């Protein structure tokens, strides 16, 4: 690292200590600097997710990382996604260290890397995590490598508020964040925010609405992620797995034979294969969880404070048991469950590259990739099947919708353009549960006829074995499309 830069930042830190930022303990400035690394990710992915047969390309993305004990590095999931090769570098050395991905948390935008080179430990240091949120209005420092610069940058910021916000990486999860005022740039993602020589959060998002507004993942989320990895496998945050409504309506309580003095919530829908699918039922009236009363608005009354039920659940690890008290059919009793993953939510989090090409048609499982790479032809029905897969219980029919994502130009298939981006309803009368099931059904029927039906369309597509063979030869020759050998 440039010596003048080091001295300048050391003086800056010394000034902050006199104003209270490091009033509790004089920090080891060099240890702070050595706790942050530049992360360079060479990713390998298809240029267009809805044309996955095309040549994949290498892209280089940059971010920052926080060094942990054991030659481990904490960074953001979006920094290392689709990685082909990851290298890290400290601000003190020009040496690149190869890193491996140990775990990715798509639901909290966190990832853990490891470095095997023992020399890495000699070049780096670790910082403790603060055991409480930073005080509102207090100052902090955000360290990182904005825009992939080789020199470490230290940015002064201040704590604006605590809030719950959408984690943009998944586009699905709402979790606690720390909103700060700081000039954060792309490349700062994964870098720590430091106060009193301790980590108070990890930079991960920039506001699109206000200048110099950024967000930190708080320590409670980080520590939940790290504790989850105690068995070397990431399970994720538990989810309610049900919807509910207020327990205020007295007439509804009377109709359900529930004492009007009881507070709680009415369950509207229980999702299958979720934490409580075997213990709770629709129309149950929940009054408490683990002995803590539930308010009419779904808040857990705990230690004199109100906490949303979803936050209470998410504080636990998968497999933790919880106990409910409830009314069912006018009778009060208890039931318990172990928290587990709601598998249906995977639809909204991952971006599978898996695809299947036959007869000049490309089939893919529906995912959020379609909505980032679409070419303007997406219709409302596909958006509906994606957006309301859980809400309208479409998972009752299949585990994952299959979409006809692309049609090659061919004399036989050119008349089928209206089927593009339609959801497969059945193949030869069979409803496939996922893409692998679809492939299996195709193989079982390809020697005779393939009959495809799509949701919302009365017309079917029919191919005989001879037509399939000829179309495959033509599209392979013209477009280089590799058809799966069945």
Structure overview:
This protein is an alpha+beta fold and 486 residues long. The chain is 20% helix and 35% strand. It contains twelve helices and 26 strands. A six-stranded antiparallel barrel has the order 1-2-3-6-5-4. A six-stranded antiparallel barrel has the order 7-8-9-12-11-10.
Relevant terms:
single chain, 486 residues, alpha+beta, 6-stranded antiparallel barrel, 12 helices
Number of beta-strand segments: 26
Q: Order of strands in the sheet with the most strands?
A: 1-2-3-6-5-4
**What is the radius of gyration?**
27 Å
Helix content: 10-25%
Number of helical regions: 12
Largest sheet: 6 strands, antiparallel, barrel
Proportion of beta-strand residues: 25-35%
The low-confidence runs, each spanning 5 or more residues with pLDDT under 50, are 1-25
Average pLDDT, rounded to a whole number, is: 86
Q: Which structural class do the helices and strands define?
A: alpha+beta
> What's the end-to-end separation, in Å?
57 Å
What's the overall geometry?
Answer: flat
């Amino acid at each position: 690292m440039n010596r003048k830069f080091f001295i300048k930042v050391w003086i800056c830190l010394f000034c902050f200590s006199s104003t209270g930022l490091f009033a509790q303990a004089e920090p080891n400035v060099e240890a702070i600097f050595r706790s942050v690394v530049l992360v360079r990710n060479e990713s390998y992915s298809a240029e267009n997710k809805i044309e996955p047969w095309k040549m994949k390309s290498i892209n280089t993305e940059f971010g920052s990382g926080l060094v942990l004990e054991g030659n481990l590095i904490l960074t953001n999931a979006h920094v290392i996604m689709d990685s082909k090769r990851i290298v890290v570098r400290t601000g003190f050395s020009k040496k690149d260290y190869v890193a491996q991905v140990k775990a990715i948390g798509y639901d909290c935008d966190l990832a853990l890397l490891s470095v095997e080179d023992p020399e890495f430990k000699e070049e780096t240091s670790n910082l403790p995590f603060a055991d409480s949120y930073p005080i509102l209005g207090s100052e902090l420092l955000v360290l990182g490598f904005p825009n992939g610069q080789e020199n470490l940058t230290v940015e002064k910021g201040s704590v604006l508020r605590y809030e719950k916000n959408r984690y943009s990486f998944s586009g699905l999860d709402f979790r606690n964040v720390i909103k700060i005022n700081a000039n954060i740039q792309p490349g700062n993602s994964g870098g720590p925010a430091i106060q009193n020589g301790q980590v108070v959060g990890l930079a991960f998002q920039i506001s699109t609405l206000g200048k110099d507004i950024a967000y930190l993942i708080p320590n409670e989320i980080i520590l939940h992620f790290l504790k989850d990895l105690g068995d070397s496998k990431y399970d994720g945050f538990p989810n309610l797995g049900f919807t509910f409504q207020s327990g205020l309506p007295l007439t509804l309580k009377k109709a359900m034979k529930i004492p009007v003095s009881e507070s709680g919530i009415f369950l509207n829908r229980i999702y299958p294969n979720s934490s409580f699918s075997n213990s709770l039922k629709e129309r149950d009236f929940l009054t408490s969880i683990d002995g803590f009363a539930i308010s009419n608005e779904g808040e857990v009354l705990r230690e004199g404070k109100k906490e949303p039920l979803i936050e209470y659940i998410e504080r636990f690890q998968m497999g933790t048991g919880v106990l409910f008290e409830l009314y069912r059919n006018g009778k009060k009793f208890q039931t318990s469950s172990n928290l587990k993953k709601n598998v249906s939510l995977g639809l909204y989090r991952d971006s599978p590259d898996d695809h299947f090409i036959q007869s000049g048609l490309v089939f893919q499982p529906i995912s959020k990739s379609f909505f980032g790479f679409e070419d303007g032809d997406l219709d409302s029905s596909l958006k509906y099947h994606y957006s309301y897969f859980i809400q309208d219980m479409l998972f009752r029919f299949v585990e994952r919708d299959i979409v006809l994502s692309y049609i090659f130009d061919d004399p036989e298939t050119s008349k089928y353009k209206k089927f593009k981006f339609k959801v497969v309803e059945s193949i030869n009368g069979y409803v496939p549960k996922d893409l692998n099931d679809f492939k299996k059904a195709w193989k079982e029927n390809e020697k005779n006829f393939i009959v495809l039906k799509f949701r919302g369309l009365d017309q079917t597509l029919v191919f005989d074995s001879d037509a399939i063979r000829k179309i495959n030869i033509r599209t392979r020759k013209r477009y280089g499309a590799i058809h799966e050998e069945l």
